[in-house]
Amino acid sequence: MPSRNPSVNVPVERWIGHLDMDAFFAAVEQLDHPEYRGLPVIVGGLGPRGVVSTASYEARPYGVHSSLPTAVARRLCPEGIYVMPRFHRYREISEHVRTILKRFCPTIETISLDEAFFDLSERGPSFEAIHQTAKTIKRDVQAETKLTCSVGLAPNRFLSKLGSEMDKPNGFKVIDPDQIREILDPLPVAQIWGVGKVTAKRLTSLGLLRVRDLRLAPADLLVRELGASGRRLQQLAMGIDETPLSGEVDSKSISRETTYAFDVDDLEEMELEVCRLVQQVAQSLRAENLICRVVRVKVRYPNFKTITRQTQLDTGTDAPEVIESLALDLLRNRVPLNEGGIRLLGVGLGGIVESIARQLPLFPDWL
Q1: Which residues pair with 69 in a beta bridge?
Q2: Partner of 210 at 20 to 30 A CA spacing, among 29, 67, 97, 100?
Q3: Which residues pair with 291 in a beta bridge?
Q4: Position 287 pLDDT exceeds 90
Q5: Pairing of strands 41-44, 342-350
Q6: What is the mean pLDDT of the segment spanning 260-267?
Q7: Element (H, E) at 230
Q8: Which residue has the higher pLDDT, 322 or 47?
Q9: Which helix (H) or strand (E) holds 246?
Q10: Which of 301, 303, 297 is nearest to 325 (CA)?
Q11: Helices vs strands, H then E, count in the chain
Q12: Distance of CA 52 to CAs 62, 89, 245, 313, Å?
């Protein structure tokens, strides 16, 4: 329960919740395979250049986390259980969670298979009723899916996601207006969504190490150094985020394709083309301040048969090296290359959202 009742101290007209399924892919594998429970489970590409999509909480003390090369994970956790993703099963449970949310909320925004925002503002002015509704959603998800989730509840999108990250796994965190500075001020600036490595380095060079520093910095300095995004970052440092939920989205995608003049059967040539296409799609992501969670590879054979294979991360990224590793793993391990070569090769990105939705844990797994 929150430390104070915001309906008494500070009038709040907007309450946004964020639901995050705990270690989703790995948890589903443990649900469907009881013999995996209590053991380190790592879901991701299993090839030589595979990448971890999700690691169970039992695997994290070994230093295994999402985006880690699977080969490194095997060295850190040789006794782990390594499995390929089963996206059809994850989508099935994700749809069930979405159905539960729709029982209570007119507006939800699905970020990925394991993550969604929901708007409880229309549940009425009573904070107690809103709080209880959020607790009921959490309870129903666990009861009906047999999986745990973490929920954050706050006056805006940014703070609600921060809340769910602060109390994981199986947590429930309310951030009311009176707590915003107390919670935000001590955090490193890198915990503000939209602050990547380059921006964090720039802020640090200006002596802005903590969110409090960013909040108190001269606005003209931030605009001069960071452009329009400087003003946006300072608003987030103040706990201000008026971004509306965009409803059922996640339809946007970015893709690039190459059609060969002659059928190609050389794997090395295909790999080089995948790397070139990855640079193009990653550049498009960054140009629009976006991140992706889904990476796809598309192949068309000489007989015009076309297939698409995809994989998903539990953390959004715009890093070319991560996208490239996933795309190459798909090409090498999940695309049949014994059908007389290929005539078309493509790389696509899905699960695309603004970079403010980037999942940046308060306590990263690799620390």
Answers
A1: 51
A2: 67
A3: 353
A4: no
A5: unpaired
A6: 84
A7: helix 228-237
A8: 322
A9: none
A10: 297
A11: 13, 13
A12: 13, 18, 30, 8
| pLDDT single digits (tens) 173-231 | 999 889 999 999 999 998 887 777 778 888 999 999 999 999 999 999 998 888 878 88
Q: Please state, in angstroms and rounded to a whole number, the distance separating the CA atoms of residues 245 and 305.
A: 39
Determine the residue type at 366.
Answer: W
Tokens of 73: 């994970």
Give the distance from CA 258 to its chain's centroid: 29
In 10 A of CB 252, how many CB atoms?
13
Question: Dihedral angle at the C-alpha atoms of 13, 251, 102, 57, nearest 10 degrees?
Answer: -90
User: What's the pLDDT band for 250 if we cut at 50, 70, 90?
Assistant: very low
Give the tokens for residue 108: 């939800």
Q: Which residues are catalytic?
A: 115
What is the distance between the alpha carbons of residues 347 and 365, in angstroms, rounded to a whole number?
Answer: 29
Per residue in 304-356, pLDDT tens?
788 889 988 877 888 899 999 999 999 999 898 888 889 899 999 988 877 65
| Spatial distance between the Cα atoms of 9 and 86, rounded to a whole number of angstroms | 47
Q: What are the tokens at 242?
A: 């008026």
Q: Is the N-terminal amide bond of 6 cis, ω within 30° of 0? A: no
Q: Which domains does the chain have, with CATH numbers?
A: 14-174 (3.30.70.270), 183-237 (1.10.150.20), 254-356 (3.30.1490.100)
Cβ atoms of 260 and 344 closer than 8 Å: yes
What is the residue type of 30? Answer: Q
Looking at residue 193, its pLDDT comes to 75
Instruction: Please tell me the distance from the alpha carbon of residue 80 to that of residue 30, in angstroms, as a whole number.
Output: 13
pTM value is 0.68
The verdict on whether omega for the bond into residue 169 sits within 30 degrees of 0, i.e. cis, is: yes
Residue 344: both structure tokens together: 């078309």
